[in-house]
């Protein structure tokens, strides 16, 4: 398939910048959602890259997903005349902090029920259940009347 050099360059630039490219499996889609290139041309270029092992391909839910390999990065660097300091976004280190502030309060020691019984916050039925007295069917109404 003949693809203009302008369109080829646009797809290559986007793929190198992001490190990942996707396309819906719709050969009649006029334009790719991210790049101003027909979807068919994107799919065919990536099909060629896959055969040269410049990308790995995954397919799920009517979408193709392509991930750059090391040999693909080298090829695109050479094609786009980029220095070796520039790397795809998938290889860049994350700049976010390891722990977010205020994400969760610290955990308390022990299970919540144990701390509730220690504070005397359980209801009458909870106290009977905790004492193991609810298994006596005849004593339940009597104990409930006396204790509650």
TrEMBL record:
Which GO CC terms are listed, alphabetically? cytosolic small ribosomal subunit
Q: Which GO terms describe its molecular function?
A: RNA binding; structural constituent of ribosome
Major place of residence: cytoplasm
The UniProt transmembrane annotation reads 125-147
Skewed-composition ranges (Basic and acidic residues): 96-110
Q: Which UniProt keywords apply?
A: Cytoplasm, Membrane, Ribonucleoprotein, Ribosomal protein, Transmembrane, Transmembrane helix
Give positions of region: Disordered. 95-115
Give its localization: Cytoplasm
Per UniProt, residues of the Plectin/eS10 N-terminal domain are 3-94
Hey, which family's this protein in?
Belongs to the eukaryotic ribosomal protein eS10 family.
Q: What is this protein called?
A: Plectin/eS10 N-terminal domain-containing protein
Its taxonomic path starts at: Eukaryota, Viridiplantae, Chlorophyta, core chlorophytes, Trebouxiophyceae
